[in-house]
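dumping this here before i forget
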Amino acid sequence: HHDRSQDLMTMKILQSLGSTSFLAARDATMLLAGFRQVTLMLKHGLNGESAYGAYVTRSVALHVMKDVKFAKRLQTLPARILATTDSKYMMCQFFMADTAFLATWSEPVHVCFAAFQKGHRAGMEAGDLTRAYRCWGMCITHGFLCGVPLVSLHRTVKMLLVQAEHYNLTEISNSYGQVQRFFEILLGMSSSRLQGEVIREQPGEQSTGHWKDRSDVPSTKDMDREQHIRWGIWYWCYEQLTMYFGELELGKICMGPSKA
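structure:
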């Protein structure tokens, strides 16, 4: 048996493996390293981490190698490995990552929703409420990209925020409060007050001016984990608004500094 600290350390290693491969690998080296990592973890009985490692390997195949066929052949491997573990914490992480980064590219929307719901249930059972409700939040953003009616999404995000307030999940409230305002703008629900409100650009910063009046993208070097997530969700909302309203030049301005 192993404790959660081992889970976290192993995940950091795997995430580092994935990040390095996205930046540097242009051949099968990182894929082989990924398989070696999965094999080693299976040998030591770390099935939850093995599933996450298989996910990273498949992600590398898809993003770096551009080998969609190979990635699809690996598609069932992480889930088969995960079925042998009782780690609800790892199940929540797996469904959140696997569905967000891979399944949403190829699977029907109802399949992705079901996977996010599994992640939500696993997180609730593990007591990891923040990740559990982030799975719920990912259902909402994915539903928007797949054309689910805005009225339904707005109603769902309001329910999410009620639950977040009930469990005192400040991170979820701060992040998805931005998504709620985003839907209100698109639905034309904005009062004169809301029309002048910008989606928060930085955690803790007061909203001023129209959503188009934004400052330069802030440095992420000194942000903590929660601030990274909040800023990432703000960025997604802003990017979608620029496309929806045809403000492509604003979108280019937004994209430019983020690469620095």
